[in-house]
Amino acid sequence: MKSHPLVQPNLEQLKVLEPWEAMPGANYRQIVKTMMDAVELSITGKVDVAATLKAAQDTTTAMLP
Fold first, then answer.
1. Is the pLDDT of residue 65 over 80?
2. Where are the domains of the chain?
3. pLDDT tens across 1-59, in order?
4. pTM
5. Distance (Å, whole) CA 13 – CA 39
6. Secondary structure class of 60 (helix, strand, coil)
7. Rounded-to-integer distance, Cα 34 and Cα 5, Å
8. Cβ-based burial of 26 (10 A; exposed 0-12, middle 13-18, buried ≥19)
9. Spatial CB neighbours of 34, under 8 Å, sequence gap ≥ 6
10. Would you state the pLDDT for residue 45?
């Protein structure tokens, strides 16, 4: 530890770490992908942003447990 003092805060945090899931349930990867795809399309300006995000919301809500 003395040779790498910056590691100590990381080791101390190990005591309080908890698992993190981006989204609940088995479909979390597809939910995240759907959301990211909708954001990407919205940023390009080639789609109706409100409609695109609403469609993504409806699609991903149906995937939640």
1. yes
2. 19-63
3. 678 889 999 999 999 998 877 788 899 999 999 999 999 999 998 899 999 999 999 99
4. 0.65
5. 33
6. helix
7. 41
8. exposed
9. 56, 59, 60, 63
10. 87
Q: What pLDDT is recorded for position 1?
A: 67
As a whole number of angstroms, the distance between CA 31 and CA 22 comes to 9
For the packed helices 28-44 and 49-63, what is the interaxial angle rounded to 10 degrees?
180
d(CA 24, CA 34): 15
Q: Is 5 left (phi over 0), alpha (psi -120 to 50) or beta?
A: alpha
